[in-house]
Amino acid sequence: MKNYFASWFLLFGFLFLISNQVQARSISPSESIALADQQTEALQSPITDSVHPAEPEHEAAHGHAPAWLVIPFVALLLMIATGPLFYEHFWHHNYPKIAVSLAATVVLYYLFVLHNVHNPVHALAEYVQFIALLASLFIASGGILIEVDKKSTALANVTLLVVGAVISNLIGTTGASMLLIRPFIRLNKDNIQPYHIIFFIFMVSNIGGSLTPIGDPPLFLGFLKGVPFFWTLTHNWPAWVLALTILAILFYLIDRRFGGTKGTAELDEEVSYSNKISLSGTKNFLWLLVIIISVFLDPNVLDWVPAIHYDGQKFSFIRESIMFAVAYFSFRFADKKALTGNEFNFEPIREVAFIFIGIFGTMMPALELVGTFAQSEEGAAMITYNSLYWGTGLLSGFLDNAPTYLNFLAAAMASQGADINVIQQVKDFALNNYLDSSFELMAISIASVFFGAMTYIGNGPNFMVKSIAEQSGIKMPSFFGYILRFSIPILLPILFITWLVFFAFAG
């Protein structure tokens, strides 16, 4: 893991070092003169440019990906889907090489064929932010042992899932998932089944975190762009209540039918339960608090926070440094009893780190093509509540939901003449100062979070929960099995009902 992170920080530095040379080759002399004229005009009219920065001309310097460059991304998705099912041994031993190789193929094409450093640098920065948060929450929560001395019942299980959904809004879906998945498995150790884990992913790892920017990465990115902190709570709670209520009722009915201990009725009568909850490693809650606080140390929100200035933007590094430090120290000084009780190891975060470096590296062309079309005249004309909900949702299930959220928010704002890079305009968009803009943002927000549960790769915690469950001996469904057996028959109808209730007849 240490060499792995070091290699990517070296690549990050490499991209910065060669960026000036690549951009110099990609801009012709006439374009350089034009850019110089634009800079002169900017100095003469600072007020206008502060509201509408000259982004199109700057973006023209970056080469755009051809459609065929999405092939590595599609190939990676297919291998994630088929590898554990048809060639498990090969996939388990080679997925890091495959993911990194496919990502490197796309990155090198951007750098040396398109002369585009912009997209790889942004993808790498987003990946470092992503893995810093997940790794720190995973390791810090791994040092907290929750023991529930209670008989496994449908009511106990559904209560834990609902509580987990609420906690997701306080420590994020990743934090809540890592804190509760092991106690949930232990509670059902006599008859743990795949549906237990799938409903956990639905309720705790995704839909639960819809109420605060801390809850899920797309909402946090929206907050950084200018969406007010409590906007998600005031606008998303009705859909949150509806979806979780249906899921809770379905889980309760299924667990009443198939859950509980099987063939151990006599043993259950002999065993007495104290119904107490005991905690070990409680000092790690302080580490979780440090992570939560550090989340807000973003230079785009707080001007005094140091940043890396590149390509007209500010990249955070203080926040990520704190998170990586927490990851190290929370493990170094963790309660050994808690680590042992949780059977803690680094394999789940290792798997997520490699799989998502492949996803972040290869999905650049796909996001670029979607974003370009969505912000074109033809794409903007298609923007409605329905297209925003289903478009954001379906892509969030197969692309990472955080960049998908930003792409559709940018498209929705552009269709009304607003700029996602201007914080005040984002705030105005959220506060409905454009035509039905608050409702459009609601469609994007709910879809990006809810649909993140459609596949294992829709949201970071999904893969981690799957990996922990498999290490506990639970035979989880394959990528397609997850979709066909659970997402389509259970989750998709709930997403359809949510659309029907809140968006289908709007306007």
TrEMBL record:
Keywords: Membrane, Signal, Transmembrane, Transmembrane helix
Transmembrane segments: 65-86, 98-115, 127-146, 158-181, 237-254, 285-302, 352-374, 441-458, 479-506
Leader peptide range in chain numbering: 1-24
Pfam families from the UniProt entry: CitMHS_2 (PF16980)
The protein's name: Na+/H+ antiporter NhaD
Source organism (scientific name): Cyclobacterium xiamenense
InterPro entries linked to this entry: CitMHS_2
Protein's UniProt keywords contain Glycoprotein: no
